[in-house]
Amino acid sequence: xxxxxxxxxxxxxxxxxxxxxxxxxxxQSTSTxxxxxxxxxxxxxxxxxxxxxxxxxxxxxxxxxxxFSTLVTAxxxxxxxDAVVNAGPLTIFAPVNAAFDKLPKGTVENLLxxxxxxxxxxxxxxxxxxxxxxxxxxxxxxxxxxxxxxASGEYLTVENKDGKIYVGGAPILKSVKVSNGWxxxxxxxxxxxxxx
Length: 196
Prior knowledge:
By secondary structure, the chain is of the alpha+beta class. The chain has two domains: 1-34; 56-186, Roll (FAS1 domain). The protein contains eight helices and seven strands; from the N terminus they run ααααβαααβαβββββ.
């Protein structure tokens, strides 16, 4: 009787410990899968690394230039990274840090708050034209009196004043060719006028 009881206790112990081990392995497997999903969840086109000899896209160039640090912070806060690195072609009118400094005090800090993400995204999209506009093309657009359609749904006026190109009233200071289009450096933030 004692041997039967002892055998039953040992059998129960082995069954229990093997179930516990299996549950632990399943839990570890599940947590590993969750980690893998979590890691890939936040990776989009913006997280793709450059291959050797490959030309940088607009976001990669902006991240490499210190004077675009506020713009990069805004792009990330608004969650529009993938829109800025898509295959394009696209043209970005990129405000330097000093352009953001010209805004009324507290504006940038307020826009970077999570509750203002949609508003910030709209403002940033007002700096992106879903087309290829090198300076030569912008001069043609200005001569024809055309406006540029922006990713925000708004239109910006292009002007040629004494040989210098202005978009939305902001002069283009410098232009950089990127893999997915053009970056034109400006010293103003192109905030769309409020709807009436």
